[in-house]
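To close the section, here is one more complete example, presented without commentary so you can practise reading it yourself. The ligand is F0G.
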Amino acid sequence: MDASSTFAQDAAQAMERFHCIACGHLSDTASQDFRCPQCHDLLEIVYPAWKQRKPEPEQLTSLWRNRRMLMNDADLSGVWRFRELLPTVGEDQIVTLREGNTPLYELSRSARTLGMPHLLAKHQGMNPTGSFKDTGMTVAATFARRAGFHWVACASTGNTSASVAAYAARGGMRSLVLVPEGKISWSKLSQALDYGAVTCQLRTDFDGCLRLLQELVLRAPVYQLNSINPFRLEGQKTVALELLEQLEWEPPDHIIVPGGNLGNSSAIGKALLEMHELGFIARLPKLSVIQAAGANALVRTVRDGGRQLISVQPDTRATAIRIGNPASWKKAVHVLEATGGACEEVSEIEIARAKAEIGAEGIGCEPASAVTLAGLKKLLERKFVKPDETVILMLTGHSLKDPDYTIDFHRGELFKGTSDESAAAALNPLRHPPIVLDATLDAVLGALDQAEKS
Ligand code: F0G
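Output:
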């Protein structure tokens, strides 16, 4: 197959359909709220045509590798490079910022401390707007534009809003973002403003924003770009494909992801199940989901048997995952069960420690991403993960997404006035507060000396 293989011929015959995850209803179209017309549950995209024209692992893995040499927009995108496993669209229709293509880093210091030979982190914070959302947004924004929408919208804890605003601007559409007032990082908000979104800070939490958006899209010609939109999850699947490619198609033992609204874990899980079914990998990695203890709806739901959602009143400084009523909980329970993964919760202190440790590797991430390292420690303790197994941590957001958190941490202010204040003293060795000095050589040499001794 030619590496630049045509979109157009594929686009002529759409291969995907919408499938209800609860009642199994199949359809060729979806309504604006992306809910099943029969039972109102979530939809996923399925590819019945794969049964007649099965994607061939050997052919495709070499095609995808060859595309890395090509310079056209679609092949420079770490999402559209894998287009054979995505919904079909013409190449000239895609809205892309060259997302994906994110690095896989060794966390050698953490590995050493944990007694593991290796520990790897896939840093999705290295996407165009600084989070994993871009991999889904390129696909969903493409289909929004193709459907002729002028407005796109989302509810968000911050990262989705930045990504929606950027892709809408690139695609010549307008964007509306609904965020909880006061509970998101200004850095993320500043991106939405810069990319031209109509930004509404609502006096509610994320769950309230999402509820309102679901009503809005049924009343106005606005296309919703939350991860309820199954096109988003198809794009986010490619993170798993790219990871497997980076591992030369040798699956890891474990993949660990943070859990908020649970779209990402669902997408990665869907990719793994498809890859396994199609014969790209011989065994399934276990996909585990980690939540902040203050926003642990999935943890509680799984403990309760996983058949009904136990929602919570969320509270965590990892604001990206400050979600109490995760929309994709059923999909996440399914991938946990199907891959044999675990679900864990971590405390605010554990998150802060893990974030500082990832920072000390010269990598950094936002607090919500650090739950993966904190969760790994718990999974090792539980012996769910063995030290000699291959583990991938999914770092979902860039360190600069929430600089206030980092600064508060290093200045020793993160836990001031909270019930964790005295326990936080244990984090002091990880803090590197700035030092204010007279501008003299002696003062700087003194600081160097002091640092050498500590
Ligand atoms: N990590 C980061 C950095 C996030 O921004 C999010 C979600 C998650 C993890 C959790 O992913 O929701 O798919 O389980 N952020 C959303 C937002 C909710 O609006 O930006 P999830």
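Once you have examined the tokens, check your reading against these statements. The pocket of F0G is lined by residues 131, 156-160, 227, 258-265, 320-321, 366, 368-369, 396-397 (CB under 6 Å). The two ends are 59 Å apart (CA to CA).
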